[in-house]
Amino acid sequence: MKLLLSVLSRTHRSAVGSKHFRSLSLSPLRGHALVVGSSPELVQRLGAQVEVRTSFITEEEEGVFLQELDPGLKKKRYEFDHWDDAIHGYRETERARWGSACEEVLNRVRFAAFPQDSQLLGPVHVLDLDKTGFIKPHIDSVKFCGTTIAGLSLLSDSIMRLVKEDAPGEWLDLLLPRRSLYILRDEARFNFTHEILKEEDSEFNGLKVPRQRRISVICRNLPDSERTEPEL
Ligand code: OGA
Ligand code: MN
Questions:
Q1: Of 22, 106, 150, 232, which is least surrounded by CB within 10 A?
Q2: What was the pLDDT predicted at 184?
Q3: Where are the domains of the chain?
Q4: Which of 138, 174, 171, 170 is nearest to 158 (CA)?
Q5: Closest atom of ligand 1 relative to the 127 alpha carbon
Q6: CA-to-CA distance for 193 and 138, rounded, in angstroms?
Q7: Cβ 34 under 6 angstroms from ligand 1
Q8: Average pLDDT across the chain, whole number
């Protein structure tokens, strides 16, 4: 059962963009960002809405997440065979309660990514991609998820590609190193598809980025319409 898919009902689009030119420009605002894009202007403009924080968790913390998640994940099989799925070669789960070490890390994620008054989607989404797994271009459901998506990457480096939905020539590639946190906000989240590249396409600025099994731990906030306003 694809429980998260039923919650998120991702709309995936085939964003086959023509790449006219590549230009390396590390985001000038954030020392840690590893972002290249179709133009320096786009990298600059979207810079505030796209963050990659390297070494957001330690090796030890990664180990604790794995210990907590692996037994449950291993009971599931990777799903490969649904050609129309947004994700290929994956198993997933969601988790509302965590051991204290993971909870402490998740609080760091929440503090780093979301405005103080944000209401978060209760359960955290855990996506386990096989080495050959990948995520096709899609935009997370605007009905169920709000302005911000924040994800920890465990076990593998990977490339996340953002492509402007109505202008496929405009794109950004994010290098997501193992143990980093990425954050997508606002325009980057609503007007750009995002995807995780498959092993054979996994290149950053001409450099091969080998893929291994990758587990992402993803926090999202709720859309404003889902907020429960206090009664007057
Ligand atoms: C998703 C998604 C990205 C990731 O599940 O909707 O885009 O980092 N995941 O796994
Ligand atoms: Mn997504």
A1: 232
A2: 98
A3: 48-78+89-223
A4: 174
A5: 10
A6: 5
A7: no
A8: 87
The reply to whether ligand 1 has any atom less than 6 angstroms from the CB of 176 is: no
| pLDDT computed for residue 93 by the predictor | 97
Q: What is the whole-number distance in angstroms between the Cα of residue 139 and the centre of ligand 2?
A: 6
Q: Which two tokens stand for residue 205?
A: 């600025």
| pLDDT at residue 21 in the model | 38
- 2, 88 in Cβ contact below 8 A? no
Query: Which atom of ligand 1 is least distant from the CA of 214?
Result: 10
* Span from the CA of 60 to the centroid of ligand 2 (angstroms): 27
Does residue 139 line the site of ligand 1, with CB under 6 A? no
The third-level CATH classification (topology) of the domain covering 48-78+89-223 is Jelly Rolls (2.60.120)
Our answer on whether the CB atom of 215 is closer than 6 Å to any ligand 1 atom is no
pLDDT in tens, 43-81: 999 988 999 999 999 999 999 999 999 999 999 999 997
C-alpha 44 – ligand 1 centre gap (Å)? 24
Q: Residue ranges of the alpha helices (H) in 84-174?
A: 100-113
Classified as helix, coil or strand, 59 is helix
- Residues of the chain short of pLDDT 70, as ranges, are 1-33, 226-232
Spatial separation of the C-alpha atoms in residues 211 and 134, rounded to whole Å:
10
**What pLDDT, on a 0 to 100 scale, did the predictor assign at position 232?**
52
The pLDDT, as a whole number, for residue 117 is 86
Distance CA 90, CA 73 (A): 10
Centroid of ligand 2 to alpha carbon of 232 (angstroms): 36
β 35-37/124-139 pair status: unpaired
